[in-house]
Structures are given as C-alpha cells and as structure tokens.
Write a structure and sequence with these properties.
Blueprint (H helix, E strand, L loop, with lengths): L1 H32 L11 E3 L10 E4 L3 E4 L1 H12 L3 E6 L23 E5 L5 E4 L9 E5 L4 E9 L6 E5 L20 E5 L5 E11 L6 E2 L6 E4 L11 E4 L4 E5 L5 E3 L4 H10 L5 E2 L3 E4 L16 E3 L13 H4 L7 E5 L2 E2 L6 H5 L7 E8 L2 E8 L1 E2 L6
Antiparallel strand pairs: 1-2, 2-3, 4-5, 4-7, 5-6, 6-9, 7-8, 8-9, 10-11, 10-14, 11-13, 12-18, 13-16, 14-15, 15-16, 17-24, 18-19, 19-20, 20-21, 20-22, 22-23
C-alpha cells in the first residue's frame, strides 16, 4: 500500500511540475520568442487585426467569444437605422407622354434639399430644413419610396421643423433619455445617405446659458470629441445600440433629442408646437461647492435672478403659483432634482396646459403646489 501511495504522490507531483513548466514556457514564448505572432486562446485572445492580416476584423477571446470591431458595428448600425432617415426633395411632376430619358424627371441624391428623421410610423418627421409653404415637397426613403409632404410646423425655439408625409408603416427608433448619456460614450453620426463619423461624447449636457439657467427654452447640446462637418446638417447621432441621441443643426451642433419632446408631443396632440413654460431662473444646487470644498445640498433648484435681475417671470405660471426668489424646488411630479434630473429638462418634456405637482422649500419650510404650465414665449430684452 505504501508503494502504491508513493507512486500516486510522484505522479501528481510530476503532473503539477509539468503543468507549471508549460505555463511558464507559454508566457516566455509569448513575451520574448514569438512577438505575439502566436498565442494560445487559453491565456488570452487571438487578434487578427494586429497588422498581419489586412483589414481583418475578428478578435477571438477565450476561444469561444467573438467580438466584432467598431467598423463592423458601425456598418451594422447604418443598415439598421437607414429606414428611419429620409431625404427631402422639391417635388417633380412625372411625365405624362414623353418616355425619352430626361434627368429632370428623376430625383438625384445630390439635389436633396435636406434630410429628416422619422418619429412616427404614420409619417411625422423632424428636420433642420425650413420649407417654403408655397412649394410642394416629397421625402424619399433609403429604399427609394417617395411620399408627398402635406403638413409642416416650425419650432420657434430651434432651427428644426416637424413635417408630415403621406406614409404608413415607417420604422421608428428609440430615443435615449439624457440621464443615460455618459462622458466617453461611443456614438456615431449618420446622415440619410449613410455618411458617418464615429466619435465619443465629451459633455452630454452642455448649456451656454448664464449662471442662472432658464426653466424654459433650454436646448441642451452634446459636445463631441470630434467636430461634425456642415454636410451633417439634419443628421442624427446614435448610440452603438442604434438608439437616437441627438439631432445635428445647421452649424454642426448636436441638440439632445429630449429637447424636442415637447415639440413632438404637442404636434402629435394638437397639430402645432406648443412648448410649455414655468417661468423661473434657477441655480442647480448640486453644481455648487463651498469654500471648504463641500456641497452641503445636492438636491434641488434654487430660484435665482439672471443677469437682468429676473428670478420669476411676471405673469408666468410660477408667478401665478406664488413662487419667489430663493425658493428651492425639490421635486416635480415626484422626480427629485438631483443626479442629472434637471428642472429645464423636465419642463421641456411637457406641453402648454399640462399640470405639474412641485415640492419646494421656502426658508426651510416644506411647501407644495399644483401648477398649470403656460405656453413658451421668448422673453424680449
């Protein structure tokens, strides 16, 4: 029995030593001898995109997991979103008798006046193009289908318009909520012809406003690590999951898609754009740090005067509800104003006539109020 036991101990010892030697040999070979030209999947990944294989786009990790590189992913996104991006053209009349070839009888992609994004399956589209009401227009899908445009509504707050084409069953994509955007997140800008720029988000919620923000009319921008060219006017910014992040205006700026919630909702409900107004200027308390490096209050928006000494706009919804300079709005409809939940962003999702329930503090005393939102109007200087 002792002999048998000793034999098993020797065999186990030899196996362990042999395995350890194999591991050490593998590491030495990878680090010094083969210069990464050969690797064992047991220890890492096989990368066919290290320069030895031209444009090979495959990485195999753990011998089972296949990871497609970003250029393949971008191509996949372009293909999946193309049905929701359309070109906008001035309408041409089809010839009635003459069957000879004439280029004037055809839509040519370079002659597109602009482009748009489908937001409803029954033909509503948002675009950076302003249409002349006296002219006739059509949209053309990536699949070559042509539809007449019958309605249009201009957004007074932005450079965008909503138009409606005589279409059915158009594909609609998901919008991304602002609170789900992060710095460093990969995104891709795509136009209706498939041109694209892959980049990352540097700032998901930039506002060029003065110190005190306006509760109304705030179009938050997305700052990208790579600037977009003017050719992307009306183009769309997507996540790598194919969800809509923002819209590109005529200056190459990316407007967050949630800034258009009110315009879209009111157009679908009333066939016109009726943005909501609360009528205050405010400071985000979670942005403030005291002299000792502390942030004593991270929840709330304090009503605070702007450069023109206006804290509450006269005759606004807030003024009628009795809100005052110094009041701290804690929540709206149960949504606490912290961790990316911004007052202006919440108001931008409502339309004129909506009622909201707010909780606020006045000199430490808890208060609440139900407020009917007014209709947004630009404040004249």
């Amino acid at each position: 029995m002792n002999i048998t036991k000793n034999i098993w101990i020797i065999l186990i010892f030899v196996f362990v030593v042999g395995l350890a030697g194999g591991i050490i040999g593998e590491l030495v070979a990878r680090a010094y001898l083969f210069d990464h030209s050969f690797v064992n999947p047991f220890f890492g990944s096989i990368d066919f995109n290290n320069g030895q294989y031209d444009r090979a786009q495959l990485i195999i990790r753990d011998a089972k997991k296949i990871v497609v590189e970003q250029d393949d992913k971008t191509a996949e996104i372009i293909d999946s979103v193309s049905g929701s991006l359309v070109g906008i053209f001035k309408k041409i009349e089809a010839p009635t008798t003459d069957t000879s070839f004439d280029l004037d009888n055809y839509y040519y992609s370079k002659d597109a006046l602009g482009q748009g994004l489908v937001i409803t399956s029954d033909g509503w589209i948002i675009t950076a193009l302003t249409l002349n009401p006296s002219d006739d227009y059509v949209i053309i899908t990536a699949g070559g289908r042509v539809y007449d445009i019958k309605e249009a509504a201009k957004d007074s707050l932005s450079s965008f318009s909503l138009i409606r084409a005589e279409a059915r069953d158009l594909p609609v994509l998901k919008f991304v909520e602002a609170v789900n955007l992060t710095k460093g997140q990969s995104v891709v800008a795509i136009d209706w012809q498939g041109q694209n720029i892959l980049t990352t988000i540097s700032n998901p919620g930039y506002s060029p406003d003065e110190l005190a923000r306006a509760s109304d009319g705030l179009l938050m921008k997305i700052i990208l690590a790579r600037d977009l060219s003017p050719d992307f006017k009306g183009g769309v910014l997507f996540t790598l999951a194919g969800e809509i992040v923002g819209l590109v205006d005529g200056e190459g700026n990316v407007n967050r898609i949630d800034a258009f919630s009110a315009a879209i909702n009111s157009t679908l409900k009333h066939n016109e754009i009726r943005r909501a107004s609360l009528g205050v200027y405010y400071l985000r308390l979670d942005d403030l740090i005291d002299a000792e490096g502390n942030n004593p209050q991270t929840v709330g928006a304090m009503i605070y005067p702007n450069d023109k000494k206006i804290a509450v706009v006269k005759n606004s919804a807030a003024d009628k509800a009795g809100l005052k300079n110094g009041d701290i709005i804690i929540s709206i409809d149960g949504i606490r104003l912290t961790n990316g939940e911004d007052l202006a962003t919440i108001i931008s999702k409502h339309i004129a006539g909506d009622k909201i329930f707010i909780e606020y503090e006045r000199v430490g005393e808890a208060k609440d109020a139900e407020i009917e939102l007014g209709e947004y109007q630009k404040i004249k200087n």
